[in-house]
Amino acid sequence: xLEENGNGTGKNGKEVGLLExxxxxxxxxxxxxxxDLPAKAKEQVEGLKDPTKTQVYTSIFxxxxxxxxxxxxxxxxxxxxxHLHPAKINRDAVRYSFTWGMGGITFFLFLILTYTGVLLMxxxxxxxxxxxxxxxxxxxxxxxxxxxxxxxxxxxxxMIIAVWLHMFRVFLTGSYKKPREFNWNVGVILxxxxxxxxxxxxxxxxxxxxxxxxxxxTNMARATPLLGHEGPFGKMLGMTPYNxxxxxxxxGSIVDANALLRSYIWHxxxxxxxxxxxxxVHFWRVRKDGGISGPAPVMLESEADKRRT
Amino acid sequence: MPEKPIPEDDPxxxxxxxxxxxxxxxxxxxxxxxxxxxxxxxxxxxxGYQQEWKHRYVAFLKSAKSESAKSExxxxxxxxxxxxxxxxxxxxxxxxxxxxxxxxxxxxxxxxILAVQSVFTDRRAYVNALNYKIETDxxxxxxxxxxxxxxxxxQKTATVKYPDGHKQDYTYDQLxxxxxxxxxxxxxxxxxxxxxxxxxxDANTKMATYISEHMVDLTPAQIDGLRKKTEDWDPKIVxxxxxxxxxxxxxxxxxxGAREPLKLTAxxxxxxxxxxxxxxxQAFVSHPEPGLLRVHDPDKxxxxxxxxxxxxxxxxxxxxxxxxxxxxxxxFPKENAEAGCQTxxxxxxxxxxxxxxxxxxxxxxxxxxxxxxxxxxxxxxxKEPEDLNSISQQIKQLEQERAQNIKQAGYLMKQADAAATxxxxxxxNEKAIALRVANSKVDARVQQLDFQSHSLMQDMKKVGPNxxxxxxxxxxxxxxxxxxxxxxxxxxxxxxxFRLNARQIQAISAFIWQSALTDPLPRQKPGNAEHGQELFxxxxxxxxxxxxEGDQMQGGAFAANLTRVGEKDNYDYLVRWxxxxxxxxxxxxxxxxxxxxxxxxxxxxxxxxxxxxxxxxPNDGHELQVQNMTVMPSLRLTVSDAQxxxxxxxxxxxxxxxxxxxxxxMEDPALKEEGRKWVRHFGCAGCHEIAGFEDEGRIGTELTAxxxxxIERLDFALFTEPAQRGGKDPIAVQEDLQRLPDGPATGPWYxxxxxFEHKLxxxxxxxxxxxxxxxxxxxxxxxxxxxxxIRSLTTFLxxxxxxxxxxSYQYRPADTRRDIQEGWWVVKxxxxxxxxxxIPGQPTTLMGMARYQDPDWKEQLPPKLLTEGARVDPEWLxxxxxxxxxxxxxxxxxxxxxxxxxxxxxxxxxxxxxxxLVRFFxxxxxxxxPYIPEQVPTLSAxxxxxxxxxxSSNAAPCLKCHATGDPQHDKNATAxxxxxxxxxxxxxxxxxxxxxxxxxSPGTSMPSGLFRQENGHWVFAGPTPASFQGYGQDHTKLLxxxxxxxxxxxxxxxxxxxxxxxxxxxxxxxxxxxxxxxRSGAIHTGxxx
Amino acid sequence: xxxxxxxxxxxxxxxVPIVGMIPLLVFYIYLAWKQARANxxxxxxxxxxxxxxxxxxxxxWPFRPGWQKEVHVWPFxxxxxxxxxxxxxxxxxxxxxxxxxxxxxxxxxxLTMNPAKAPWYFLGLQEMLVYFDPxxxxxxxxxxxxIGLMVIPYIDTNPLGSGYYTWKQRKFAIxxxxxxxxxxxxxxxxIGTFIRGPGWQWFWPGQTWDHNRLIYEVNxxxxxxxxxxxxxxxxxxxxxxxxxxxxxGGFVVHALFRRxxxxxxxxxxxxxxxxxxxxxxxxxxxxxxxxxxxALNIKYVWxxxxxxx
Lengths: 309, 1089, 309
Fold this sequence. Notes:
The complex is a heterotrimer. Chain A is an all-alpha fold. Chain A contains 13 helices and one strand, in the order ααααβααααααααα. Chain A has a domain at about 95-205 and about 255-290: Cytochrome Bc1 Complex, Chain C. In chain B, a hairpin with a 5-residue loop joins strand 1 and strand 2.
């Protein structure tokens, strides 16, 4: 480029000046590289010495990490996962012996189940021909497939136990009492949803165990009063094996391909969606109802009725 | 609370969780590593196997290589190999100068091509890009200007710098031409090089082939290849995936040696210093039957279709082929491995490949011969009664339809008579006529069905004898003794032991005795027992029957042992039976369900005649059962011969018939009804014909898919727990315990194999400890099987599965292989293999008998049928099988081999079975059906003369051994009459036969080497008369044409002439051995001249 | 003693959660009981010492003035939550590595499993099937359980024991809940898992599960015992018995409740009181019916053309 410019220099004096200016400019640029580069490099290194000051860091962590009360509070409030917690809680509420941690464990297990469940979905087809083969495939072929399936299964069982223990603890500490009555009800619904989640998953391997468990389970639906063909008053209302509530549940009169598909959709999409909704309500209400109930100061018998009036 | 001192620092805030976290993190990390190693090693045990395989196989190959090198050296010492080596050297030397020259040229050429190519491809890319621009330019002027640009570019020269240093300028077109020229040159040179090297390569291949053909195992080079492959092996899953059958078999991930080209044994793969082969060595052995794998290519079939087991599982031995309770198709035990054949080959009666197939074939035979299908339905077995049943159902329906039509027609006619108008009357009449026409169609259909049932009734056999005849046949007092325990009387009998109590025995004997026929039986003259014995032993009776007990026993196991027949049988009946076992006392009408007697015929004024040609019921015209349902054929004996044999047999007894305790209670009518109940209860009619039980159904479970029945459905009764956990074997009776193929159970036996084996060894074992009434106890009788028989039947049952494979895996061929399949059913049904050999190496009963070990008697053995289909004209064969005497008048003879003492019996095959048999023979010899006989050219007088001289040549005196029809001559004949050839044989087979009979029927006495190859023609090996000078055709062809045109007169003439010759030359010694020597002398003269 | 049988049941993969749940329950009940006793002692002390009650921080845990009443969630709560998550993960992974989720034969509608069992958490309901018609055990009962759980906060008028463990202040509520949870739910699951063998027959632990076992058992209906034959009479009789149970039972409960729990009695409205009595009696009806069946072989009490109870 310079050369070409040079070709045209003979014609015009002004152009000569331009060339001079360009030359000078280039010289300057080179000089600046010599002086600025080391300085900037030094600055860069200095900046990296404290990564918490970098822009990348601060964009993720929105506050300092100093051990001050403010930062401790911000750490919780400014984190999407932690902000369900208040910044500060009752000093004794961190005691494991009081809470048993079962609510948190249940939620943690729900997350594990979601992650493992999503991974399992990559390998599973809810069809009569494929389902069992896919589980065999998971057992024998998929890298980490076996542990994946096992974790999903055992986490489900563990979650049921955790939910029961959670409910047990909440009852024992009277935590359903005013103003938490409604959240207790949400909890009961979540308990039912947990059981249904596990139950719908039972059929999916399409083996004898699941098949008969679901058959036994859904056979009871036949006997639903009014809505089941074997239930009280069912016949009078025109219920048959082909139009009663069990038929609706299974998508057929026997546990078959349709039941498998329904089970799958309820298990993977339907119930989780409902459960997540209720979980959001549950957690939100914990905060809004004043955090967890205790450990509260004991109330004396003598004060009970006073307070009532 | 207050008791505890309150600490200064707030524990909630000040407590450190560092230790907790440390422990938790260590544990978590540990768990993660555990999970990883679990995934990498523990869940993949095959990796260890493959590691071990590499060590052991490489070690094995090393030792194999040194051995192989040794033997290779030996082969290389061989002069033949040396010759090959010399050839190779010569070829190599002669090719070498030119080869070297070409190779140098080629090297130079390649460098030049490279130089031109680099310039040319660059310029071509530019030209192509420019062309594209021209093509896509929208304006004509633009196209034009670019075209010019292109021309200009093409004219511009480019410089190519050649490897030798010189440079040259080319325009584009020149460059292209130069490039193509160089390439053409290279192609030419390469082709030339190939031509030059071809003889060298050929010679080299010849050497390699020579070595590999003469080496027992692989050559060192091949072994090196294997070793390299093994050493480079990276552990990975080895699997066979057949997508459309959903087979995923990873067996070879551990069983690495299964398909290796070397024979690997467990001992060979055991490391030195280790005494017993460990589980690795056992896992690495090669498949014992490589021949089987060639037919069933593992890449198409996988492993699990034959062996079962969980082909996918690689996590543990238990999951793959152990006793894993949740896997539906556990691996067939080694000793029952042939069950796998049955899962696809259920339609085959005969299976053999190498060492494999004997067990399952025996199982199939036993199932039929022991009469299992009398009680248990099994698809494919005993089809005739089922078909017959459905036909009679159809007939009944049609008959109803006809009656309905007649009634309707009569009604319409009546209405027509009373009709008001003419048109109405006509209309109704027409309707009535239409119904009558419809009835004639019905009649035709009934007739057709009747015809079918004629065949079926002829084919229908029962395993046991016809009990309607027992009053005529048996000693009354013997019956209860027999029923008590048949094996006490005849240890080898098919009749199983029913465990009857005294009351049941009395009732059953009374019922069958009283329900039997009482027709009079003609009295027979006593015969000559001595002659009878000779006939019995030589006519072929022993191919099926046996005689003598224990060590003395000789003969076949297909039919009854006749050692004590004199104690039970009535002489008059025995004569009738020997003369024609199929002769029935009264025909049975399945339509009326009764035995038809003379009174029925008399009513219609018909003579009391019934046989296969007169099989219509006098009452209703339906097909009658006119034969006894036995497979025992007629030997076409004269009545006096039959009397002789019967006289001999009646002497066969250990005690007098009168010595049996009196059983006159059998005449008691009161017992009869109870007996009927028990006969029905025990399903006696499954094997026997019994009056009133002709249409009795089967009483047992269907077994077609017994092997895939869920284990829960097999009733182990009180032995469920012991079977699951092992323990003392429930069978207590020593005799039955010894039937168990693997001996008394030592471990758990809760599987199909255990169930079947125990059930077969002691059928009532699962009743043990249960309280049941006498009608509830298990009915299955004890078939007193040996352990080998139980193993075979268990194998058969294990393989009886509803296959999970696609239907295409079932062996149900539609071509000639189907004829073979169907034919074996008939061949096995009539025990043809007792006398004839159908496949090489198959023993026959007669072959094994002491008598036929004598060289003279060996020639008396029935002919081998190895290539029967290629040998004989199928039409003739059909005629022969229908009437082996080949004559309707002179039946006391063999139609073909009149010289044989053993007699080809008349089996009264139905048309159906005849067709199956003929097709079977054709298919077995790969003969096309239908057969179009070859036209034999008419010979000229000169040719006849020439042929005659061969035919009667002293070097090959054909008529010496072949029968001529002259009784005097035929006494010593050992081969069939030539006059039969024209109708019977296929000319091209005869030609092959006279050239090399040993190749077709090993061991035949027909001499070999009668002809030799000369100038591409077969020429007689003995001296030929002058007339053969200049005859350029096959002598064999000439001889065959002559034989096919032989007339009786010609044969007589030649025979007479030869007789004269022989008389003068005294060529014929008298004693058997010398006679043989004499003949083999003739062979040698024939062969060496 | 058939140890092998026992081991087979206990080690069945799906039964392991139940086996694990038993010690877990015992541990948590112990944990709750310990805290409840401490609180009860504190309450007793404070009741007698009003002065102390005024100054005491009213928790059984130690406290000094100056200690924070509230602590930061981060890090004091979160560190425990995170630790719990790690421990649960470890447990789950070890469990998944060592024990595989069950996978039996492919489903086969023609081959009934014996015993065919529902998923373990529903075994309580399946056990109920022995004593009740499916429409009660499978439909009405679960519905009542859910509703019963949900009404708890609305009928429990006791203001005491909210947010801390106590026994003395909530004897009735906790006793009833323990009865429902431990006896009617957990115990039933244990019976369903370990005791019920082939044919849903009763096998004591260590007794071999014999598939061929036959048991003579004739169950009669209560009306038959009284020689009532006509359908109408049976219906009326049953209605009287069932109605009588609730009436008389209600009266008895009233008599006891009023006497031993006068404070709660006073606090409850009529609606709360009658709902409480209904659910209490229904809970009692369960073991009552079981007793009738097990001890007296009585199948139904109330027989109508449409339903049986």
